[in-house]
Amino acid sequence: MKKLTFYPIPIFLWVFIFSNSLAQKTAFTASDAIKVRNLNSQILSDDGKYLTGLILDGSARFGTDHFRFQDPSYLNVSPSELVIIDTENGSELRPYSGKAKVTSLSWAPNNIEIAFLEEKDTKLHLMVYDIARKKLREVSVSGNPLLANSEITWMPDSKSLLIHTREATWMARAMAVYNEATKGPIVVYDGSKPFLNWDEIRNTNNLTEVHQVNLANGKALKILGESNYNGIEVTSDGQKLIFNQSFPLKTAYEQNKGTEFQTSFLNINAPDSAKVIYSRNEKRREFSWSESKSQYAWVDSGHVYVQKLDGDSALNLTKGKAYSDEEKKKEVKFSIMSWSPQEGKLLLSSEKGYWLADAAGNQLEMIYELPEKKEKAPDLGLLNWSSDERSLYFSYSSKEKWERGFTRFDLETKKMENILLNSNLYTDIKTSKDGSKYVLSVSDGDMPANLMSTDASFSAMKVLTDLNPWMSTKKLTRSELISYRDTDGKELKGVLYYPVDYEPGKTYPLVCEIYETFYSNGYNRNMNLIANQGYFALRPSVDLEIGYPGEAWVKGITSAINKLVDEGKVDNEKVGVQGVSYGGYATSLLITQTDRFAAAINISGKVNIISFLGDSPKIGTRNYAAAENGQDRIGGSLWDDPLKYLATTAVLYADRIKTPHLILTGEGDWNVPGGNSRELYFAMRRLGKEVVWVNYLNGGHGAGGASNETDFYDQWKRIFDFYDKQFTKEKDKTEPSASTN
Question: Which residue of 193, 327, 522, 548 is most buried, as measured by CB atoms within 10 A?
Answer without folding.
Answer: 522
